[in-house]
Design goal:
By secondary structure, this protein is of the alpha/beta class. It has a 5-stranded mixed sheet with strand order 4-3-5-6-7. Strands 1-2 form a two-stranded parallel sheet. Strand 6 and strand 7 form a beta hairpin.
Length: 400
């Protein structure tokens, strides 16, 4: 067995930021990691990534490095039958080529105009269609969909929902298929074809059967195919978006040896178009997808920053949809309260001493009862505690 041990953030208990130090930390503090580290039958590969710019944003570092660390040897091993070079040399060559390309790319200058325009679009309550062909579709789908739980945005709407509950997401993926595929297809078949091509021409498998019957409104094939990524979604979406809402286009596609990024505007606006020469990557689809993932993760995180979805490096709009995220939200609220400890203690130090993990947890769950998309649970909980304990009507502004 091979197990990739992720250390998303160096332990605060040691100044040593090495892989060995993170192994020690995980052995001492994380039971599941301890069992892996101490198992002699498992080969451990530690891919420590260092400090995180945005707390808890695992998509920015952890999933990127895991995808590349696992994919690189898998894809290269597959090519061994055609490659006369030693396996390790082949892997190293691709990695060096990728690092060389990325180090020469001025990421800030490349992304800045795209970030500025997309953030402005959302502030005006308008939208973006991310359009691409099947080549990059899965990486673009991943980035655009995971914005919802990360920043508490409305998710991609399901076309099987009644119009009264449909709220258009800020952005939506549109898959561009060749006419040879789409010609003559009915709407339902077009939706299925979009899913199939996005998954590399593989059939979509949902959770069907007797056991899942009670969950069919969430996990069935019928529910899955309510998510439409075909071009037919464009006119449908304009019908339930707010009146006069604009839908701009962000086109990302492979053109020869280049990855092309282009923004086209619904109404006045100069096209923004840039491209990256990826010939040096030797046609490695894994390397190209990793590059697109890094760029889009950076892009969407900074767009959300300009849109007001985090403060400092705290994800105040994290959606507490599971125990991990609930715990994260509790710790964020506690951190914010401690940041204002001096001010709050001047009002009532005894009441401040009441604040512990359980206290914040209870306040958080009280706010979860009425939480809707587009609300900041961290700020709502922080405000609740400040109001209940210290009579501060609104400690922080909730509007974005």
């Amino acid at each position: 067995f091979i197990f990739f041990l992720m250390m998303r953030r160096p332990p605060r208990s040691t100044l040593d930021r090495s892989s060995a130090a993170s192994d020690v930390y995980k052995r001492q503090n994380v039971e599941r990691s301890k069992r892996v580290i101490e198992n002699p039958n498992i080969c451990k590969i530690n891919v420590t990534v260092g400090p995180m710019a945005i707390t808890g944003s695992t998509r920015m570092q952890s999933t990127t490095i895991l995808m590349y660390a696992i994919g690189l040897p898998m894809f290269r091993y597959h090519l061994l039958r055609k490659d006369t070079k030693p396996f390790q040399e082949s892997v190293k060559e691709e990695l060096v080529a990728f690092l060389d390309l990325y180090s020469k790319l001025d990421e800030a200058a490349f992304l800045a105009p795209f970030i500025t325009k997309e953030a402005e679009t959302y502030q005006y309550k308008d939208h973006f269609f991310y359009k691409t062909d099947p080549y990059f579709a899965i990486s673009i789908l991943t980035d655009t969909t995971e914005r919802s739980p990360t920043f508490s945005l409305f998710p991609f709407e399901n076309q099987r929902d009644p119009p009264t509950v449909k709220v258009p997401s800020l952005c939506h993926l549109i898959l561009l298929l060749p006419e040879s595929v789409t010609t003559g297809l009915k709407d339902e078949d077009l939706v299925k074809a979009s899913w199939t091509y996005m998954l590399g021409k593989r059939d979509v498998r949902a959770l069907n059967g007797p056991y899942w019957e009670k969950y069919k409104e969430k996990v069935s094939s019928e529910r899955l195919f309510g998510h439409d990524f075909s071009y037919k979604l464009i006119p449908k979406r304009r019908e339930y978006a707010k009146v006069n809402a604009k839908h701009h286009t962000f086109l990302i596609e492979k053109k020869g040896d280049h990855i092309h990024f282009c923004m086209l505007f619904d109404g006045p606006g100069k096209e923004i178009s840039k491209e990256i020469d990826v010939k040096s990557l030797g046609g490695s689809r894994l390397a190209e997808h990793t590059l697109v993932k890094i760029l889009l993760n950076t892009h969407s995180t900074l767009v959300m920053g300009k849109y007001g979805r985090y403060e400092s490096n705290i994800m105040i709009f994290v959606r507490p949809s599971n125990n991990k995220l609930i715990d994260r939200a509790i710790r964020y609220v506690t951190y914010m309260l401690n940041q204002r400890k001096e001010e709050l203690c001047k009002i009532d130090s005894k009441k401040f001493d009441l604040i512990d993990y359980k206290f914040v947890c209870n306040a958080l769950f009280a706010e979860i009862e009425t939480l809707v998309y587009d609300e900041a649970i961290v700020l709502k909980t922080f405000n609740r505690i400040c109001k209940d304990l210290f009579s501060i009507a609104k400690a922080v502004q909730l509007d974005t």
